[in-house]
Design goal:
1 helix; Immunoglobulin-like; 7 domains; mainly beta; 62 strands; 707 residues; five-stranded mixed sheet
Length: 707
């Protein structure tokens, strides 16, 4: 509440005395006197303090007096400038200032007087503010890894600051009185957390504290290398391929990588980076020793290597010949009498000399083989598919004989279709509708007897429409931005051998007629009696709205202010919690209607109380004379309903310095300081929480300790 300085005066009117001189035959005309103003010449007021001025004004002639107040600064306000008494309000300033106020009094005959007062206004005073600490909430560090913490600290008043770090005794602090310091943590086999608290105090005694959690990770055991179980030394014949399949494991199940190698560069690995590898050895004429090595590396770069010695023997040319391996491939399907090339692969230690093909009881011989590599050959047969009247599967066989006289036969199937008269039908939708700046895939309906050779989609030039993937049986249409509806011609040309079909369709691009979006935003989702709710209409174009209505469902008649852009009301008393729907209906100038709904939860007093969880300290809070004590209370507002939190002292015995509540997340901190404890006793403060019209009180017990 503002204080006002009042200058008390009394009004005195002096009237001229009447009378006569007896028998005097004439009387002189009296002279009009100026009003007389009795006003202090100076006054002093505090910052933001109004000044009430009530001077004494008299007129010797008893004339009616009018008044006019003035001030030499436009920032000063006068509540009533033509009243005998008035109040002046001065602007706040960081420095002391002096203003001149003047009163002019004029009587009914035009005579006037003026008098001025000098008003000195004290400079604005500010309350010291606590320092501000910016510190991360938690951090992880490895075992035996020091941590340097460099928080950002500032003071709103620019005061000088002192620092104090506190933590567990087993943590080493390089300097607990520096803002930036380094912490060393003891080694542990398992994870362990430590709390580091920084308290910052300014030169005027205001302080703040903030805590961070350091999670020290447990000691990581030494990683072990992979284990390899490779085959024993073995003998291999010249030019032979051998599959190596070792057993590999890792104690920690780490990800593994593999590398096969040999001391002989002529050794060929099918894949030197897989755990299994087929190894092809060179041809030799005399016995040779070759080392095959497998190196396995885990994800921690631990490496193991194993070797196997291979004794490579020359091929025994006196060995019994073996039959070749034969595999037919490329038996593609097709139409009657069409040419086809049938192919086969042969693996043989002896050179193949004769190939006999059989298809549809027709036998053809060939002695021409293509050498692919050592012991690998290929033979081809170019022939015509048989003539058929219906779909038929024919077996095709190949018998290959080597120079040793041994032979092998392989069989496959070739499918033949009857000759069909070419037929091609293509259709498109007559019209294709698409919104501006939209994409749409259009499919052609195609009935074809033979394979399609090509698709060619085209769109009318100058339309601005883009076609994507225009060489398949479908196309993606990308419509441009248009100011009005437009049409363009779409053409598709399909080619099948000698047959060509051209079809057309009309693309209709629809201009956007969508109104500018309208949404609702609500100031609260949940509220109790006495709390204000404001629902705002959000749109970039309110001119599009021709008319509007608001409706509230779930409540009886309620007094609400309603405009095109907002609705507001104060929550009434509800006996039981209720869900209320607020409906906004806008009729647009283009004839459309937009309806938006938001839901509100209105709760009764019991529900409000149940939503609040107040947890005082779990230990006794001791307060001593001239020592600041921090009282911390957990306040959980699950429905976000709290309007204000205050500390009151209705039954408090001791007197505390002014209490300022500090809030941090779900906690409130109450700094307490007193010098009025005469003996040990219990005292109580009251934590008062207000939600709308409801007030909830929670007693907080203190243990008062005399020094």
């Amino acid at each position: 509440m503002k204080k006002a300085i009042v200058l008390l005066v009394t009004f005195a009117l002096a009237a001229c005395g009447g009378g006569s001189s007896g028998s005097s035959p004439s009387q002189s005309v009296p002279t009009n006197n100026n009003p007389v103003i009795d006003l202090d010449t100076s006054a002093t007021v505090s910052d933001n303090e109004p000044l009430r001025v009530s001077p004494t004004v008299t007129d010797a002639d008893g004339d009616v007096i009018t008044y006019k107040w003035a001030v030499n600064n436009d920032d000063v306000t006068i509540e009533d400038d033509d009243s005998p008494s008035t109040t002046f309000n001065f602007p706040a300033s960081n420095e002391e200032k002096t203003y001149t106020i003047t009163l002019t009094a004029t009587d009914s005959k035009g005579a006037s007087s003026s008098k001025a007062m000098q008003v000195k206004v004290a400079a604005m005073t500010t309350q010291n503010q606590a320092p501000i600490i910016e510190l991360v909430e938690s951090v992880d560090v490895n075992n035996n890894e020091p941590l340097t913490v460099n928080p950002t600290v500032s003071d709103p008043d620019g005061d000088s600051l002192t620092f104090k770090w506190s933590t567990s005794d087993e943590v080493n602090v390089s300097n607990s009185n520096d803002r930036s310091t380094t912490f060393s943590f003891p080694a542990h086999d398992s994870n362990k957390s430590y709390a580091l608290t920084l308290t910052v105090t300014d030169s005027n005694g205001a302080w703040s504290a903030k805590t961070m959690t350091v999670n020290v990770l447990g000691k990581i055991p030494d990683n072990k290398p992979p284990i390899i179980d490779l085959v024993a030394n073995k003998t291999v014949e010249s030019n032979q391929t051998v599959l190596f399949s070792p057993t590999v494991s890792d104690p920690e199940n780490d990800e593994l990588s593999y590398q096969w190698s040999s001391d002989d560069s002529s050794v060929i690995f099918s894949d030197s980076t897989l755990v299994q590898s087929s190894v092809t050895f060179p041809a030799v004429s005399v016995q040779r020793k070759i080392i095959i090595s497998l190196t396995v590396t885990d994800s921690h770069d631990n490496e193991s290597i194993e070797h196997v010695e291979i004794t490579l023997e020359p091929k025994d040319t006196s060995a019994e010949p073996t039959a070749p391996l034969v595999s037919i491939f490329n038996t593609t399907s097709g139409n009657s009498l069409e040419s086809v090339t049938i192919k086969a692969r042969i693996i043989s230690l002896q050179e193949p000399t004769l190939a006999v093909w059989t298809l549809n009881n027709v036998e053809v011989q060939s002695t021409t083989f293509t050498t692919l590599s050592d012991n690998h050959y290929q033979v081809d047969w170019v022939t015509a598919r048989p003539l058929v009247e219906k779909f038929t599967a024919f077996p095709v066989t190949l018998t290959v004989t080597t120079d040793s006289g041994l032979s092998t036969t392989d069989e496959d199937i070739i499918f033949v279709s009857p000759n069909i008269t070419p037929s091609l039908n293509v259709t498109l939708p007559s019209t294709i509708s698409i919104d501006e700046e939209a994409n749409k895939v259009v499919y052609a309906t195609i009935d074809n007897s033979h394979q399609i050779d090509s698709y060619d989609w085209k769109v009318e030039a100058g339309s601005g429409i883009t076609l994507l993937n225009a060489s398949t049986d479908s196309v993606t249409i990308v419509a441009p931005e248009v100011s009005r509806d437009m049409e363009a011609l779409l053409t598709l040309i399909v080619t099948m051998g000698e047959e060509t079909r051209t079809v057309e369709s009309t693309i209709k691009v629809n201009a956007d007629k969508t109104p500018v979006p309208i949404t609702l935003e609500q100031s609260r989702i949940t509220a109790g009696q006495g709390q204000d709710i404001e629902i705002s209409v959000i749109s970039d174009d309110f001119e599009q709205i021709e008319s509007f209505t608001w409706a509230i469902q779930g409540l009886a008649t309620i007094d609400a202010h309603k405009t095109k852009t907002s609705l507001g009301f104060t929550v009434p008393k509800v006996d039981t919690s209720v869900i209320v729907s607020v409906i906004y209906t806008a009729t647009l100038k283009n004839g459309g209607t937009v309806m938006k709904i938001v839901n509100l939860s209105l709760v009764n007093e019991a529900a409000i109380r149940n939503s609040l969880t107040i947890t005082p300290p779990s230990h006794n809070v001791e307060v001593r004379n001239n020592v600041q004590t921090l009282l911390t209370v957990l306040v959980v507002d699950s429905l976000a309903l709290i309007d204000s939190i205050a500390i009151t002292q209705p039954f408090t015995v001791n007197t505390f310095e002014p209490i300022v509540i500090k809030k941090a997340a779900h906690f409130i901190q109450v700094p307490l300081k007193t010098n009025t404890i005469e003996h040990d006793h219990f005292d109580f403060l009251n934590l008062q929480i207000k939600v709308g019209v409801h007030t909830f009180d929670y007693p907080l017990q203190l243990v008062m300790k005399a020094n």
